[in-house]
Amino acid sequence: MGILASRVTGLARETVIAHFLGNAPVAGIFRAAIRIPNLLSNLFGEGVLSAAFITVYSKLRAREEDQAAEHVAAAIFGVLAFTCSVVVLAGILLAPWLIDFIVPGFRGKDRELTVHLVRILFPGAGVLVMSAWCLGILNSHRKFLLSYTAPVAMNVTMIAAAVLLGPRTPQQGLVNDLAWASVLGSILQFGVQLPRVLALLPGFRPVLEITSEHVRIVIRNFGPVSLSRGVVQISAYIDQIIASFLGPVAVSTLGYGQVISILPISLFSMSVSAAELPELSSAIGTQAEIAAVLQQRLTKGLRRIAFFVIPSAVAFLVLGDILAGALYQTGRFHHADAVYVWSALAGSAIGLLATSLGRLYSSAFYALLDTRTPLRFAVIRVLLTASLGYLFALKVPQWIGIDSKWGVAGLTGSAGIAGWVEFALLRRALNQRIGNVPLSREFIVKLWSIAFLGAGLAYLIKLLLSGVHPLFLLLTVIPVYGVVYFGGSLLLGIEESKNVLRRFRR
Fold first, then answer.
1. Which of 65, 215, 306, 410 could bond to 392 as cystine, CB 3.0-4.6 Å?
2. Domain segments of the chain: what residues?
3. Which residues, 6 or more positions from 481, have their beta carbon under 8 angstroms from its beta carbon?
C-alpha cells in the first residue's frame, strides 16, 4: 500500500512534468541531471540499508540483543551522515566532470544547464540517504506503511511547484524550480519518518564509530551489497550514457519509459522483497532449519511476484502505447512521443520478470550474510548491459537501416537479456546453497498464456476504438485485460488469484 501510494503520486508527478516539458531536449536534460545525484541515494541508501544493515539489525533483534541493535543503528547513522556530507560536497565541486562521464553526448548549453541542475540536486540526494536509514529501522520493526509512503511528500512538493509555476515560467526556469522543489521534498520525506524512528530507538544518540564487530560487518558488506542491489540503477546509468549519443530526446524517452517499467518492480518485487528480508534475516537455528525456512518463504514470494509481473510485462509489450499515452499525452507531449516511449517499454518487457525474481534471490543471499555471490553476478550483468547496449542501440540500427532513435528499444532490450543471465546465475547458486526452490514451469506457462490471451483481446478493442484519447482506451482495455487474466487464472486453479480475491473481499 505504501509503495502504491508513492508510485501513484510519482506517476502524477511525471504526468505534470510531461505536460509542461513534453519530450523536448530540456526534459532530457532534467532527467539526466536528477538521475546523477539519485545514484547516491540509491546505492548508499537502498543498497546498504535494505540489505547490509537490515540483515544485521534484524538478527540482533531476533536474538533479543536490543542494546547492540540500537548501537548499530546509531553508528550507521553517524557513518552515513559523515560519508554523505563528503560525497555531496564532492558532487557539487566535481559536477562538470560527472556530466562528461554520465552524459558524454551533451554539449554546449545542454551541458551547462545539466551541471547547474546537478549542483542544486546533490544536497537533496544526501538527505534521501538519511531517509533510507529511517526506512531500514522501520522495516526491521515491521513498520512498512510509513517508510514507503514517505516519498509522497517529495512527489506532492514537485507537483505543486510544476502546477503553480509551470504556466508562467519558461522551460529552463521551470526545471530549475523543479530541482529546488526536489530538495525540499527530500527534507520532508526524511522529516515525516524521523519521529516514528526515534520512538522505536528511545536511547538513540548518533555516534561515529566503526570498531564494534556488528558495525564492521555492515560496513564490510556495504560495497558488495550496494553494487549488487544497485545493479538496476547502474544498468540504467549505462543506458543513459549510451542514449546520450542519440540526443537529449532519446534520454528523455528512456526516462519516461523507465518511470513506467519500474512500477511493477516496485509494487510487486520490491514490496515482497522488502517484507521478506527481515523475515529471512530473522531465521535462526541449524543450517538445515534456516534452509527450510528460506525455501518455504522464497517459493511463496517468487510465485506472488510472477503472478503480477508477467501480465505487466505483456502489457508493456502489447499495450505500451496506451500506457504511455494515458500517462503522458497532454500539453507538449504528443501521440508520436507516446509511441516512442512504447518502444522503450517493449524492450524492458524482455527482462522484467528476471529482474523482479532476481531481487528476491539476492535478498536470500543477504539474509545468509553472503554479499559476494550477488556482487559477482551483478558485475556480469553490468558488463553485459554495457556491451549489448552499445551493440543494439548504436550499431544494429545502422546495420539494418532504420532511424537511430529506435536504438532506445535496443537499450532496454539488451538490459533485459543481461537480467536473465544474472537471474539464472543467482538461482543456480542459491539452489546449490539451500536446496531447490521450486517455481514450476507449468505455473509460469499458464500465466504467460493467460496474459497473452487477455492482451490480445485488449489489443483488438484498441484497434476498434482507434482515434480516441489513450486515457479512454486505458479505462476500456485494461479492465478487459484484468478480467481475462484473473478469470483465467481462477479457472486454472492458480492459488495466487484466489488469495487476491480473498484480500479484496476483506
1. 410
2. 1-220, 230-506
3. 311, 315, 319, 454, 455, 457, 458
